[in-house]
Amino acid sequence: MYVLEHALLNLGRNKGRNILLGVIIFAIITASVITLAISNTTEAVISETRYTFERMVRVAPRQIIYGEESVTLEQFHYFAESEYLVGADIRENPMSMSGIEAIYFLKQPEMLYDFEAELRNKGLPDNYSVVTENATFKNAIGHLENLQNITFTFLIIVLVLGAFIMVLLSVISIRERKYEIGVLRAMGMKKKTVALGLWIEILTITCICFALGMGAGAMLSQPISNMILAGQTDSINVDVSVSILTAIQILGVSILLASIAGIVSISRITKCEPVKILMERN
Predict the structure, then answer these.
(1) Where are the domains of the chain?
(2) Are 125 and 71 a contacting pair, CB within 8 Å?
(3) 11-33: average pLDDT
């Protein structure tokens, strides 16, 4: 209990340094919330889009060769009578190779080969292909993949730079508090107890910044996503939301950063001998 009380009192005694550390942690957490929220939401949209297009099957001739059998509109509708489908979109299209555009919607993507076998048994000629809309899918998610790559790269930069800054601040903090640590050690406080107190201090700051950073990140995620996508040629929008998964990931990142700073503090404390510290001060 004494360690906890002492740590909380120190937060007020060292306001300037703690405010600076808090600003850094707040900025790291806010940036992490934004990048992870955009990345996780984008990944969900990509997965959903992939699932949708993997269920869309286009039946069309590979090429039109004079004399080869072609499929009529009635046959395409006959093909739609299948237990593997949930629907079909069949229409006349003068722009298509055969003059008919036929897209079938599978119940599950893995039913593709069974559906094709059924079509062959129903009379689908060999010169007709049965394929999913992979090309359309790649075009649809191109901008989303770019957005995901940008946010992931930015997240790595933020975490590496943030960890470096926090380590640097921890080293400076221990140097400034060497006399305080020496007094505590001279009073009989063990090294691990002193280290625990310092860790509680930074963990408390991190928890406060976590709450503030989650709120700020949630508000800024959507505008920043819109800003990044605004320069794309095709109009696209992603409804960004901060999920439970994102919150858990951010909490893990926050604890990791606090622990890194705590480990640095502990390593510095082990080099602080109380007698030597007090003699240097005198």
Answers:
(1) 2-50+138-281, 63-126
(2) yes
(3) 82
